[in-house]
Amino acid sequence: MKHLRTFSLLCLVFICILPMAACSNQPSTIRVAEVTRSIFYAPQYVALEKGYFTEEGLNVDLKTTWGGDKTMTALLSNGADVALVGSETSIYVHARGASDPVINFAQLTQTDGTFLVAREAQPDFEWDDLKDSTFLGQRKGGMPQMVGEFVLKEKGIDPQTDLNLIQNVEFANIPNAFASGTGDYVQLFEPTASIFEQEGKGHIVASFGTESGHVPYTVFMARSSYLNENEKDMEKFTNALYKAQQWVQSNSAKEIAEVIKPYFEDTDLQLIEQVVDRYKSQGSYAENPILDEEEWKNLKAIMDSSGELPKDVAHETLVNTSIAEKIMND
Predict the structure, then answer these.
(1) How many helices (H) and strands (E) does the chain have?
(2) What DSSP designation does 27 have?
(3) Are residues 305 and 241 in the same domain?
(4) Mind listing the pLDDT tens digit for each residue in 141-194?
């Protein structure tokens, strides 16, 4: 009888432990808010589609929040765990005295992703051609606008006096505004720029990414408290991203386009390949997740040039490279 009670007790303990063990093997869910859906973010979709996050024991719940302000609101209000957005947003949050600062921990893109599109074909385009024209720019305070103005100044053009600069059009409405006749030039992301070329609505004449140099244009970031409380998951997340970055670097634009096609169902596969090739050729996709100090300095210089740098913030204050360095050295 005593042995029977002991056996029954052991069975009860086993029954209680089994569900807990099963739960411990469940993948961690990480809610990611991306600022927009873009071929510019190809390595992220590669990591998802090739199962790199799953291999790390993670379930990534991706949602598109359409705009920097909305993305940061989602992150700060605990509507997302990780945000994919421009690094400038972390500086804006820091300047407002956030008690739980937003930390950049893994870089995805390292150049501007926009292109200068002219209404008419200009095979012999010179930057001086912009003078006295109407330029349909991006939202004030965002990275596209700041990089755009930075490049113009580098080319000897004062955006405020040398051209008619339009900045009061919402991000999502800029392509339609240009297609409807507003502006002689417009600053556009892909694939819209290439689509406009195909449809005869505009012609790509220059790349802001090529002209501006390396900058932490789009970065994965999280609240400091979340990073500290979920260190292992963040290492796994960054490792999955790094695998995808390596895969993107070593595979053709055609192969990349085929992998990320499910995220762009309404876009022709050949056009996706063309856009990926354009971004690869100008080195837009970061080769690893590390946001280095030189890139951070370039970001601040661009923001300062546009009058949008609220205060100087040291690299080590808002950037954590230890996670990326650890997974790259393992």
Answers:
(1) 16, 10
(2) P
(3) yes
(4) 889 999 999 999 999 999 999 999 999 998 889 999 999 999 999 999 999 999
Phi-psi region of 251 (alpha: psi -120 to 50; beta: other; left: phi over 0): beta
Measured CA to CA, the distance from residue 178 to residue 200 in angstroms comes to 12
**Count of structural domains, the chain:** 2
Cα gap 170→153, rounded to integer Å: 24
Which of 183, 212, 241 is a domain's end point? 212
Specify the DSSP element, H or E, that contains 236. helix 231-250
Q: Which of 192, 202, 323 is nearest to 267 (CA)?
A: 192
Query: Same structural domain for residues 313 and 184?
Result: no
Task: Tell whether 283 and 179 lie within a shared domain.
Answer: no
The CATH number of the domain where 266 resides is what? 3.40.190.10
What's the pTM value of the predicted model, to 2 decimals? 0.90
CB 109 within 8 A of CB 208: no
Amino acid at 2: K
Please, is 209 exposed, middle or buried when counting C-beta atoms within 10 Å of its C-beta (0-12, 13-18, 19+)?
buried
**Containing H/E element for 31?**
strand 28-34
Query: How many Cβ atoms from other residues are within 10 Å of residue 234's Cβ?
Result: 25
Query: What's the rounded Cα separation, in Å, for the pair 229 and 243?
Result: 24
C-alpha distance from residue 34 to each of 13, 69, 184, 220, 236 (Å): 44, 11, 30, 9, 19
